[in-house]
Structure formats: C-alpha cells, structure tokens
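Lecture 7 notes: from sequence to structure.

We start with a single chain of 478 residues. Read the sequence below before looking at the structure.
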Amino acid sequence: MTSPPPSPEAPPRPSTTGSRLASIAVASALFMEFIDSTALSTALPALSTAFGSDPVHLKLALTSYILALAVVAPASGWIADRYGPRRVFMTAMGVFLVGSVLCGFSRSLAELVVFRMLQGVGGALMVPVGRLIVVSSAPRERLVSAMSWFTMPALVGPLVGPPLAGFLLKIADWPWIFFINVPVGILGMLAVLRFVPPLHQPYPGRFDMKGFLLAATAITSLVGASEVVGMGLVPAAVQLGMWGLALGFIAAYIRHALRVERPVLNVRLVRYDTFRASLIGGTVVRVGLGATPFLLPLLFQVGLGWGPLETGLVTVGTAVGAMACKPVAPGIIRRFGFRSTLIFSNLVTATITALPAFFRGWTPVPLMVLVLVVGGFMRSMQFTALNTVAYADIPHNTVSNASTLSVVTQQMGLSLGISFGGLMLHLARGDSEGVITPGQFILPFVAVGVVTALAGPLFRRMSPEAGASIQGRSRMAA
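Now the structure, written as tokens:
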C-alpha cells in the first residue's frame, strides 16, 4: 500500500438512464436492510416474550446493530476507494445475509445482540458505499433525481416490513423475520451485478489506523454511555466516567483528524456550509426521530393491546407517506429551495412526531393512519433535502469522505434517539415496572418532538441560495 496502482482509464460520463438503473439496483439491494429494521421493530414485543426480557431492554437489539454500523462505517470510504465500490458492496451484502441467518437461530437476547452486530458490519459498508455508487454514477445536474430514485425503492422496505412481520408472527415464529432476508438479498445482489458498473475511485493512500481506533472508541463509549444513563443499571459515578471517556476520545479524534492528511473521518468538510447544515441538522433530527420505530410498536402492542399484524398495518402509514413524497420531492425543492423546504418540513415533522403521545384506545384508527402518513411524507421530504444538499458544494474527490462522515453521524443520531426514547419511557414508568400504559407514552413522544424541532434554527441560518447549483434553480430565483 506504499505506492498507488496504475490509474485506470477514466470512465465515460454516465447517462441519465444508466445512473437511474444503478440507483434502483443499489436501492433494491438495500431493500432487505429496511425490511429487517422495520420488521424487527414490530416484533420487539414478541421477542420480549420469547427471551423473557423487559420490553424496554429490547432496544439493545436495535442499538447493537447501529453501534456496529457506526463503528465500522468510518473505514468504509477507504475500503471502497481501495477495492472498488461494487466489489465492497457485494461483499457487505454477503456479510449481512450471514448475520441475518444467525439472528434467526438466536436463543437469547445476548446471542441476538452479537449477531445483530455482525449484520451491522455488513450494513456499515452497504449504506455509505451504496450512496457513493449513486453519487458517483449520476451527473451533477441530475443528483436530486438520482437520490430520489435511490431512496424510493428502498422505502418499499418500511412499507412491507411491518405488515410482513405481523403476518409472519401470526402464522410462524419470529426467526422468519430474519430468514426472509435471504431471497431478497440474493435478488439484490443479482441486480447490482447487472446494472452497477465498476467505478474507479482515486487511490486513498495509507489507511488511518490511529484515527479509526480513536473514532471507534469514541463511538462505542458514547453509545454505551447513552444506553445506561438514567436507567439505574450502573452507579452514577460510572455513568459520569463513561461520558467523560466518550467526550475525551471525541476531542482526541478531532485533534488527530485536523493534523493528518487523510483522516478516516474527514471533519474538515464541515467548513462547507451546506454540508455542515446537513450533518448537524440531520443528526439532531435523527436523535428526535430515532425513537419512533422503538416507541410505536410498544405503544400499540403493549400499551393498547393490539396484535403484531394490526400494528404493522397501521405503522405502514409512515412508509406510505414517504413513498408518496419521493416523486414530488425534486419539484418541491426546485420550487421553494432547500432552506425553505427544510424549515417547513422540520416544523411539521416535529409536531407530527409528538402526536402519538395522545393515541388512546378510543382514537379512530383512520386518524392514527392519517397522522402517520403525513408524518412520513414530511419526514421523507426533509431527509431528501438533507441528503442531497450535503453534496452541493463539496469537491467531487471528497464524495466518499462526505458519504462516510454522513452515515456515521446519522447512525449515531438514530442510536442516541433510541436510547433517549427508552430513557423517557423509563422515567415515565417510574416505579411501575412490568406495566406499560398509554399515558406513559406522553413524555417520550413529546420529548422526541421537541428534540426534532431543535434543528429548525440550524436550517434558518442557511443561505436562501444554499444548494442552488444542484436544485435546478438559478441563483436569481433562489
């Protein structure tokens, strides 16, 4: 690795049709990951019964995956540049499939957590490398459209996942929510082989092992500290020590990253206004929204006494709204600009996120579905704008660095959100261990709504012309 290999001939400029097919192929491969995560959320109460665990502790099945993903993801950019995005993507899918099968054979929460972490290793490479393939394959002026095509097929996963999990739990046992990934993953791999061309990335140089170890320790410490805070699992002094360790390693990594030429996570990219707004604002939004997939199934199945199939059919409203948004998102962004779109969608999303706090047994089911559909629509609008504006101003040769940093911070936000939701539910329950009532969900949902709204002031600081070069609007119109 001391000298770069011969530079391959530059690939031809991608066509619109070719970039669209590549986007759909990668998204179809990621489809199984979306099915997996949403199906698992619906199955949490069933897993609680199978393993004899408190429902709140089942959040470990979600956060363990995100932890592994966030720890390994910093290396994904270098690995993709060194060995080729398509090859790395295919290998990651294989690792994810092996982890899925092993999860299905788990017989305890501890085993499930370990095998979910193996899935997370595969996901750590699939998510950022998949985005790298899409961004690298699309002409700059077609980036908004390519990202929309990339995310729209993947949203079928959340559309199918909850009712599929409910159906499987009704006719079979919970391991089948993992086994179903196998045929989906194989079809996705075939699509990638057919439609994704080999991409030639700049030689990444020597791997930043010191930075990787610092970042991995910082991420692990931060997730561990957030998991135990306020839960009474460890003494207060230990909790403070974990937070101090996490902050210390974060500071150490930032100092290291600013001194080396090719850090594993390139924090220098925050100097670009659009990328900084996407990174920080998107992380805050995901802290607020990360708790929702954890809280909603518990509210419906434990708080309201619904079955998993009924829960899946109602929670699918979020995915329906997200799907409906994708075809119109590029036009809305072109008409109103990134800044206005983000401000408005964040305000509505924060409000809608808090409304399930007031769901009761007498609440009309169509009203619940309507709330979730509108929330899914606005949430999808917000994430489409965030994920696209991030690449508006950064140099093309730093796309893999930007993609890696974005994925790591996004997953950290989601992990912190799940821990935050679990903490709020724990505080709302008080001394009533083993009993969860609908009224106890008021604090968790209102709290995550408030946190989501905190991103609004960050979006207001953006320039009205932010992202004008990629949204198809002239700077005068912006």
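Residues 81 and 201 are 5 Å apart (CA to CA). Keep this in mind for problem set 3.
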